[in-house]
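Our preliminary data section would be incomplete without showing what the modeling component actually yields. Below, a chain of 168 amino acids is followed by its predicted structure, encoded as tokens that our downstream tools consume directly.
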Amino acid sequence: MTSSSDAGSAADPHAAGSAAGRRDGDHVAVKRLTPQARLPERAYHGDAAFDLFAAESCTLAPQERHVVGCGIALQLPAGTAALTLPRSGLAARRGLTLVNAPGLIDSGYRGEVRLILLNTDAREPLEIGVGDRVAQLLIISLPPVRLVEVDELSESERSTRGFGSSGV
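Predicted structure:
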């Protein structure tokens, strides 16, 4: 559970308000879908992202991927989205990453947060246990934009130079 002194932790359901989609300060409603699920939390004050925890266990063979549920659902405010990102320490020490990093969670999605985990190690299996930190959740604001078709684009310094154009 979150404490009232940790304003950056997962949302207190009582503080989020009861109206659907209502934004009350900087709260995001989080629903625990399974008893063993851990709510997202920041490891340190000021961290940009929240840690996500596995709500189920699995063993990832070398180079294997597996979809793992976090046992939570989110109610993101309109005008926001969430990105799921790998944890750098797990990637460096154990070879764990996310196949579709970043994963995108739209504000209208109310289903379980699920992650496509990948064991990048060529030799060692990777055990994932219930409650293990496996990824990060970054909540972002979306600017109000619309796409407009045009006949020409303005020039830029980079122009059409793409992959690798700035050097190695």
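The longest helix spans residues 88-94. Residues 1-24 have pLDDT under 50 and may be disordered. Preliminary results of this kind motivate Aim 1 of the renewal.
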